[in-house]
Design goal:
The structure is a single chain. The chain is of the alpha/beta class. It folds into three domains: 84 residues, Arc Repressor Mutant, subunit A, CATH 1.10.10; 108 residues, Periplasmic binding protein-like II (D-Maltodextrin-Binding Protein, domain 2); 99 residues, D-Maltodextrin-Binding Protein, domain 2 (3-Layer(aba) Sandwich). It contains ten helices and eleven strands. The strands form two sheets. Strands 3, 4, 5, 6, 7, 8, 9, 10 and 11 form a nine-stranded mixed sheet that branches. Strands 1-2 form a two-stranded antiparallel ribbon.
Length: 298
């Protein structure tokens, strides 16, 4: 049985006779007859009562009810096979938040390249706001970031929780204090990510409980905040996963909710993803679990 035989059978039903089916498919009538006979031989049943009207047998009627599903499934399998072949080469456009570029992506790409050496990966680094817009513009396949506000066309699959950390230079007055309240931070300027940074927005939410607001310096490149902290008497606000030098220390500050969900962000309309994307995401999730374990140990 092959796709041509199934298509011929369906066309006979649609056209009513072998002759009309042959004309529709641009086959010789003998070709149509031979294809039906091959089907009947393979199934061990008669599909048609012999005659000019091509009347179905009882078994033929049952088969006719399922032939559309069979053809649809056959086409689906062929398309999947072609897709797999095409995925040997191609491009993945992946959006990521800044902290993953130094800790996670190099390891993930090393593993991925061993299985898909001919797939080009373009990594776009940004915050949740910019990566969300890139997804909406169809310039990214998916992104690893936080959950954007008021964008129902995008769906976040949470992968891990990123904790907000506060950092100071090792000779800062706060460096030796066991714990601090948010109000105590008013003594120094805070150096935070840009206005649309989720860490910045979460911090502003925490400070909204107080009548006064702290003084901010905003820096869009989060990885540069430790350098500012070393030069300026201040408190930096960064994700816990950010790599820090020995000249900077983390201080304990009380927050009602210091965690931000980070995950896989895609368009809500996407139901299936390719095996290439699945493989990349598998390695990514594995490494994120390893990262979370390392963060807990520290």
């Amino acid at each position: 049985m092959d796709l041509k035989e199934l298509t011929t059978f369906r066309t006979i039903i649609q056209e009513g006779t072998f002759t009309k089916a042959a004309a529709k498919l641009n086959y010789a009538q003998s070709t149509v007859t031979n294809q039906v006979q091959r089907l009947e031989k393979e199934f061990g049943i008669k599909l048609f009562k012999r005659g000019w009207d091509s009347e179905l047998t009882a078994s033929g009627k049952i088969f006719a009810e399922e032939v559309d599903k069979l053809i649809h499934h056959w086409n689906y399998v062929l398309e999947q096979a072609k897709s797999l072949q095409k995925e040997e080469i191609g491009i993945l456009n992946i959006g990521v938040i800044e902290t993953l570029t130094a800790t996670v992506l190099p390891i993930v790409l090393h593993k991925f390249r061993e299985c898909r050496p001919n797939i080009t990966c373009n990594f776009v680094v940004g915050n949740t706001d910019s990566l969300s817009q890139a997804l909406l513009d169809n310039s990214l396949d998916f992104a690893v970031c936080g959950e954007p506000y008021n964008l129902p066309s995008l769906h976040l699959e949470p992968l891990y929780n990123e904790k907000i950390s506060f950092i100071v230079s090792k000779d800062h007055a706060f460096a030796l204090k066991p714990s601090l309240s948010l109000e105590e931070l008013y003594e120094y300027p805070l150096i935070v990510g840009g206005k649309n940074c989720l860490y910045h927005m979460r911090l502003e939410k925490e400070f909204s409980r107080y009548s006064a607001k702290p003084f901010y310096y905003s820096v869009s490149q989060i990885s540069s905040i430790p350098s500012f902290v070393q030069e300026i008497p201040s408190v930096g606000v960064v994700p816990t996963s950010l790599l820090l030098s020995s000249d900077v220390v983390t201080i304990q500050v009380e927050m009602s909710d210091p965690y931000i969900p980070i995950g896989l962000l895609q368009k809500s309309s996407i139901e299936n993803i390719s095996s290439t994307k699945k493989l990349f995401l598998q390695y990514l999730k594995e490494e994120l679990l390893n990262l979370q374990g390392r963060v807990r140990l520290t």
